[in-house]
């Protein structure tokens, strides 16, 4: 049976005294790729940060690999939005990816041969092995995205969270990333990805989870063909543009 990597049941989260998420139920097993879709401000990033134990759960239950999130940090990789990384920091690509292993190493200990081999392997997987010594500030947007993915892979996560990984990247990087996510799935990694690219998500995800403060719908893309579900998720009236974007899906 597939191993459960993530389970949320009735989860509520508050930010600044305001309830941002309520009654969130979500399950994710190994080898699943779930697209987290919702309008701006729906709580997608907050949900990822809560799974990473960066945000407390107000009520409900959250388990990562069967454990409370604070005890499961070593099994969750995170690819943040690109603007969240300090690209002006004067370090090489290799050093940036090595930071992905920092919490697996004892504080102050130097990187060993296993760390370096894991970093090289992660850079190979994202097609960046040739640029290992390049300063991160000199990279293009697509190359930066690859570095963030390699950094998350360097910890060999069982669960990988990706925040808008396809936003603003070139087509070759989109294709390479799509292939990589599919490979990770076949290796058993569970993947949860926020995206605004509905067409890409429908094409590659095993399930789509429509979030708007709570889970409005969660199913295989082909089974989410009802326009009303999408309209509810996005809080829209029937006439709006989303119906046209969804095209055949509605
Ligand atoms: N530190 C904070 N304090 C109070 N409210 C916050 C804080 N951070 C975010 N919020 C609010 O929480 C809600 C959810 O934000 P979040 O960033 O999780 O949404 P999102 O779905 O990721 O949006 P986007 O698609 O725009 O990235 C928003 O209304 C936002 O304004």
Average of pLDDT: 89
Radius of gyration, in Å, reads 18 Å
Order of helices and strands: EEEHEEHHHEHEHEEHH
What is the share of helical residues? 25-40%
Strand segment count: 9
**Unique ligands:** adenosine-5'-triphosphate
Structural class: alpha/beta
Give the strand content: 15-25%
Major β-sheet strand ordering = 5-6-7-3-8-9
Low-confidence stretches: none
**Helix count?**
8
Overall 3D geometry? globular
Largest sheet report: 6 strands, mixed
Distance between the termini: 33 Å
Keywords: ATP-binding, Nucleotide-binding, Transport
Family: Belongs to the ABC transporter superfamily.
Protein name: Manganese/iron transport system ATP-binding protein
GO molecular function: ATP binding; ATP hydrolysis activity
How would you summarize what this structure contains?
This is Manganese/iron transport system ATP-binding protein. The protein is an alpha/beta fold. Helices cover 30% and strands 24% of the residues.
What do you see in this structure?
The structure is a single chain. This protein has 250 residues and is α/β, with parallel strands linked by helices. It has a domain at 87-156. It contains 8 helices and 9 strands. The strands form 2 sheets. A 6-stranded mixed sheet has the order 5-6-7-3-8-9, with helices on both faces. A hairpin with a 2-residue loop joins β1 (4-15) and β2. α3 (113-125) crosses α4. It is globular, with a radius of gyration of 18 Å. The two termini are 33 Å apart. Residues 15-16, 18, 20, 38, 40-46 line the site of adenosine-5'-triphosphate.
